[in-house]
């Protein structure tokens, strides 16, 4: 099968298309023919591995020294079950499914930058929402699970003012919708080119962080949600950390290890089927264009998600 292999940590050009052995499912696994996957900010972080010494060492202990232990990156899968192990009972051959290759900090599996992947049936794996395409479904798991992790740290009630910094990214676009479903009044922070997008998702107020003195537009909020973490900052962002009501809370995606439990994954499926969340796709690339896709995500300017089409359907 065709797969993108990461030869070593560093530049996107280290991602090379190769022919590798097609995997076979274990007794508790399904074999998925991948129709679409996505390139996430976490994929780029792992591929580059240019963190400071201590975080870099920790990441290499987790993922491998010199190059990823599993050289095929990618954790998002949208596709069709082609085969299954003898103990699999919840899925059938031909089922259209989507998945995220992590259920906890100790249970994770890369490998979706390829034509096929095997995953345990008990992991974050479910039937694909019928109302979405394979490409749209591939745009749900990463941003959706991380946004769910952030929203779970809140107790949003109707009318609460919530500011979302990094509102136009894969995490932010879902966070807007999850908070809006809970009745929040949303202030989104992004650049002006993304105003129409975040407005369409439910934003009530929008602030352009690139403008001089944009921090003067800040009000006070019950929750300030930072969907980009320490990788990006601005004067507005620093000021927003203190723009809180009494007992207000600042929540960053970089605080602790994000949890990706199965119940959150299934909830995203339900919300997508009910059209209460809408996945956002910026660009779609082919597997052969993986280097270009990584370079685009690395710019930090993507809107929503970057999707990779692998097999046709």
Question: Can you tell me about this structure?
Answer:
The chain starts with a strand and ends with a strand. The mean pLDDT is about 95. It is built from 9 helices and 14 strands. The radius of gyration is 19 Å and the shape is globular. The chain is an alpha/beta fold and about 325 residues long. A hairpin with an 8-residue loop joins strand 1 (about 1-5) and strand 2 (about 15-20). It folds into 2 domains: about 1-140 and about 280-310, Quinone Oxidoreductase, Chain A, domain 1, CATH 3.90.180.10; about 145-250, Rossmann fold (3-Layer(aba) Sandwich). It has helices at about 40-50, 55-65, 135-140, 140-150, 170-180, 195-200, 235-240, 260-275, 290-300, and strands at about 1-5, 15-20, 30-40, 75-85, 95-100, 115-120, 125, 160-165, 185-190, 205-210, 220-225, 245-250, 280-285, 305-310. The strands form 3 sheets. Strands 3, 4, 5, 6, 7, 13 and 14 form a 7-stranded mixed beta sheet that branches. Strands 10-9-8-11-12 form a 5-stranded parallel beta sheet. Strands 1-2 form a two-stranded antiparallel ribbon. Helix 4 packs across helix 5.
Which key phrases capture this entry?
alpha/beta; 313 residues; 27% strand; globular; single chain; 14 strands; Rossmann fold; 5-stranded parallel beta sheet; 9 helices; Quinone Oxidoreductase, Chain A, domain 1; 2 domains; 7-stranded mixed beta sheet; 26% helix
What sequence of helices (H) and strands (E) makes up the elements?
EEEHHEEEEHHEHEHEEHEHEHE
- The number of helices is 9
Mean pLDDT: 94
Distance between the termini: 17 Å
